[in-house]
Amino acid sequence: MAITALLDLRLRAESVETAAGVLDRILRVTRNRPGSLGVEVLNDITDPTHLTLVERWESIADDDAYRAWRATPEGSSGLAEILSEPPRLWRCDTSATF
């Protein structure tokens, strides 16, 4: 079952200018992880410090494996250095139809 993971990010005001480069580096790696179906970045048009990453994964197991890898020294992204608060994660089942 495919899932969508939404990662809500709040940047430090002083990181807004450098965030694109940092995120580009991080997301190139994320997009190449097993099970990744792609990542989009949503920019809040009223608040430049607010971004949401929309990650699509083949399965929750693939997303779990990715998050576990990111928690290791090898997978550490440095994302926390540009954030003003911890990211918030929301994972959704995208197989339901209404």
TrEMBL record:
> Which Pfam families does the annotation name?
ABM (PF03992)
Q: Where is the ABM domain?
A: 4-74
Q: Which domain of life is it from?
A: Bacteria
Question: How is this protein named in the record?
Answer: ABM domain-containing protein
Organism of this sequence: Naasia lichenicola
